[in-house]
Design a protein that fits this description.
The structure holds two protein chains of two kinds.
Chain A lengths: L2 H26 L14 H13 L3 H5 L28 E11 L2 E11 L9 E13 L2 E6 L3 H5 L3
Antiparallel strand pairs in A: 1-2, 2-3, 3-4
Chain B lengths: L2 H33 L6 E3 L1 H34 L3 H4 L2 H30 L9 H24 L4 H35 L16 H24 L7 H34 L14 H28 L4 H39 L7 H42 L2 H35 L4 H33 L2 H7 L2 E6 L4 H11 L4 E4 L13 H12 L5 E7 L2 E7 L3
Parallel strand pairs in B: 2-3, 2-4
Antiparallel strand pairs in B: 4-5
Helix pairs in contact in B: 1-2, 1-4, 1-5, 4-5, 4-6, 4-7, 6-7, 6-8, 6-9, 8-9, 8-10, 8-11, 9-10, 10-11, 10-13, 12-13, 15-16
Classes of the chains: A alpha+beta, B mainly alpha.
């Protein structure tokens, strides 16, 4: 077999394996952690429920996880996504990291991935990390920053 | 392949390679992201997100990949054993553009990945996007580098494009390496327990230190690979001289002298009592100035040595590069010296204005101490530099006679100084006359006129002797017949085959200037006869005596034709 044909065969096989592996991983490893609800009286439980409510576009429910001063007044659909190069409201996922609790305050790092189709050379996954700050009020954790959807999703 | 067809194939290949790369990178990002969720406590929207990512990346990968393989295989088949194709401008643009883009993507990704490793691989901060970008851009770079290495640079355009790539990346690596070294040393020195309690700082092993270490490792690696391996032996390149003289030597000297001036200024300022709130941390500037001086000196010394060794190998260019270096250094020295003298004049003029002024001036003594410290630092550093290099130039001119005086570098140097001095004098004169006239006409003539003209007075006093000194030099050059020599200079173009390379170099050496070389691609000629020194001297005389400023040499049929011509 010619060297160029061998090279083509090896590359093609590698790409095939990559596609199969990615498909298997996407179908089997997603959703397993989002399916389990964390305890409601933990910082993670509050942040998780907040994002689940946003996913369902239930803003009244989402606001119930925020402090009284930090209420969301707009929806994801109201955001000017074109400003950040998105054609429309993107698909997104959030990944919750570990939380740090000190007295009645807590922080939690959240990785937000936005999906955007732009140019053929551009990576369509735009990731950024946001630190959520929470306060304990009546045995429940409430988010007080970030306090609007721009800060959470409006990232180029 | 004709040019239009070639352009089409390379353009489509470039776009489809971009699609393939994005597809692979996205799918790898997804895989790494799914595999690295060990420390994640929860994820919202993961499944839908992963499926949409997969839906886009699979077609990009398959369609982009198939198209790229199709076009690239046709390109490679056409190029195989075809030197016209491998040496074509479009192919070499394509290869070097990809090399440059791939390394510019891979290195920052590698830097962030290395920093993450140094941080102890925190699971929550793992960026799957960075790792996939590093893998894909790295693979693209390695593949195209091997393609280019295998076929070599078979045309002058191929050599030039490769040189652009090599020296751009060498410059990037050198600057990154040296800046990171200085910053790391500064951070280490600031963290020494000798500065008292006035300094508040975080832990040493923090983000900045990790980023400096990354800069040292990666900057050093890319500089070493490109400069020591890819640029090795490339002595005939003009871009190499730009890198050596303008980036490394000029840049190194400028950085080192700036750090030295700042050190001396701060020491003088302290010695004159200008620093009233003294704490130990005042001397922390030594933490960056001394490393800057040491590293800049090392860069300067190393590249100076390389330049010296290379000028020995390329004898006909020896004096032009030595000359360029001397005039550049002299220019740095002179401009710094002029700055120092202007600052020196500021003190008596300023004190005069203050003494004539009725207003109360607060804090002026600290200000004057600052000016005094600055001008002493500038004069102490600039005077020896300028004197040393200017004396070297004087000796060079004495030995080289009218030919040396007519060198382009010298003429640019002299006319540059003359131009700047004349413009300064004109601007200063306008301001002084304006201030005086305005004061007289408006009835406000007084100390304010002097105050508003002080900068112009300072610069006019310095610019005038500088102008006169260099004007006299230019006049004496002209008296000695420089203009006549310049008129005799010819732009020479040579049309010759591979077999005439040695002869062309010999002619260039005797002529003392570069020649434009056109490679003859017709039937290879028989062995050229040996041309004696007398014959070459006669040829040089014929070139110089040609009736036009442009001359073409045609080396063919065992003889050399000298053809004067003009461009229409």
């Amino acid at each position: 077999m010619k060297s160029s044909s061998r090279w083509l065969l090896v590359s093609g096989t590698a790409i095939g394996i990559l596609i199969i592996a990615a498909t298997v991983l996407a179908l089997t490893m997603t959703g397993e952690k989002s399916g389990t609800l964390l305890a409601a009286d933990t910082p993670g439980g509050t942040v998780q429920r907040f994002f689940l409510a946003l996913k369902a576009e239930d803003y009244a429910q989402a606001n119930s996880y925020l402090t009284a001063e930090t209420q969301i007044t707009m929806s994801l659909g109201d955001l000017d996504w074109s400003y950040y190069g998105y054609q429309e409201k993107p698909n997104w996922q959030v990944t919750l990291g570990k939380s740090t609790v000190t007295a009645n305050e807590a922080t939690m790092d959240v990785v937000i991935d936005n999906f955007r189709i732009n140019t053929p050379f551009d990576n369509p996954i735009k990731s950024h990390t946001i630190t959520f700050h929470l306060k304990q009020q009546e045995n429940l954790w409430k988010i007080y920053t970030p306090n609007d959807l721009w800060q959470i999703f409006g990232y180029y | 392949m004709n040019t239009t067809k070639r352009f089409f194939f390379y353009a489509v290949s470039l776009i489809t390679l971009g699609m393939l790369a994005t597809g692979v990178s996205t799918i790898l990002t997804l895989c790494f992201s799914l595999l690295s969720k060990q420390e994640v406590i929860s994820q919202v929207g993961g499944r839908s997100f992963a499926l949409e990512t997969l839906s886009l990346s699979i077609p990009m990968l398959i369609i982009g990949g198939v198209l790229w393989v199709f076009f690239w295989r046709i390109i490679q088949k056409t190029a195989s054993g075809n030197t016209t194709e491998t040496g074509s401008a479009i192919r070499n643009w394509y290869l070097n553009l990809i090399l440059l883009a791939a390394i510019s993507t891979a290195i920052p990704a590698a830097a962030q990945f290395l920093q993450w490793l140094m941080q102890g691989c925190p699971g929550t901060q793992f960026s799957s996007g960075l790792l996939s970008m590093l893998i894909v851009a790295g693979a693209i770079w390695v593949y195209h580098y091997r393609v280019e290495e295998k076929e070599g640079q078979l045309s002058s355009v191929a050599k030039t494009l490769r040189r652009w790539y090599t020296y751009i990346i060498s410059t990037w690596g050198l600057i990154w390496l040296s800046a990171s070294l200085v910053q790391l040393l500064y951070t280490a020195i600031v963290h020494l327990p000798v500065w008292g309690t006035g300094t508040i700082q975080g832990a040493f092993w923090d983000y900045p230190v990790r980023s400096y270490l990354t800069g040292i490792l990666l900057g050093g690696a890319i500089w070493a690979f490109h400069w020591l391996k890819l640029a090795r032996g490339d002595t005939a390149s003009t871009l190499r001289q730009v890198y050596l003289y303008l980036i490394a030597i000029f840049g190194g000297v400028t950085a080192g002298l700036t750090a030295l001036i700042i050190s001396l200024y701060k020491v003088f300022y302290f010695a004159f009592g200008g620093q009233t709130n003294y704490t130990g941390s005042y001397f922390q500037f030594f933490g960056w100035t001394i490393p800057t001086i040491l590293i800049a000196s090392t860069i300067w010394a190393y590249h100076r040595k390389v330049a010296e060794e290379e000028t020995e190998q390329v004898k006909n260019l020896r004096f032009s590069y030595q000359r360029l270096h001397s005039y550049l250094m002299s220019l740095i020295g002179l401009s710094t010296l002029v700055w120092g003298l202007i600052e020196l004049l500021r003190i008596p003029l300023g004190l005069l204005v203050n003494s004539l002024s009725q207003a109360t001036v607060i804090g002026s003594s600290v200000l004057w101490k600052g000016y005094l410290g600055l001008c002493l630092a500038l004069l102490l550093v600039a005077t020896p530099v300028w004197l040393y290099y200017w004396n070297k130039i004087i000796k060079m001119v004495a030995a080289g006679g009218v030919e040396e005086r007519s060198a382009r570098t010298r003429r640019i140097y002299l006319y540059l100084i003359l131009g700047v001095a004349i413009v300064t004098l004109a601007a200063d004169s306008i301001n002084i006359v304006y201030q005086v006239l305005n004061g007289l006409l408006q009835g406000t003539f007084g100390v304010s006129v002097l105050r508003n003209s002080d900068w112009s007075l300072q610069t006019i006093i310095i610019a005038l002797p500088v102008l006169l000194y260099h004007w006299n030099i230019l006049k004496s050059d002209q008296r000695l017949g420089v203009e006549t020599v310049i008129l005799r200079e010819k732009t020479v173009t040579v049309l010759a085959g591979e077999e005439a390379v040695d002869l062309v170099n010999k002619i260039g050496e005797r002529l003392g200037s570069r020649m434009r070389l056109l490679r003859y691609r017709g039937q290879p000629a028989e062995q050229l006869p040996e041309f004696s020194d007398e014959e070459i001297n006669k040829l040089i005389s014929d070139i110089r005596a040609a009736s036009t400023s442009r001359v073409m040499l045609v080396i063919a049929d065992k003889r050399i034709q000298v053809l004067p011509y003009e461009e229409k």
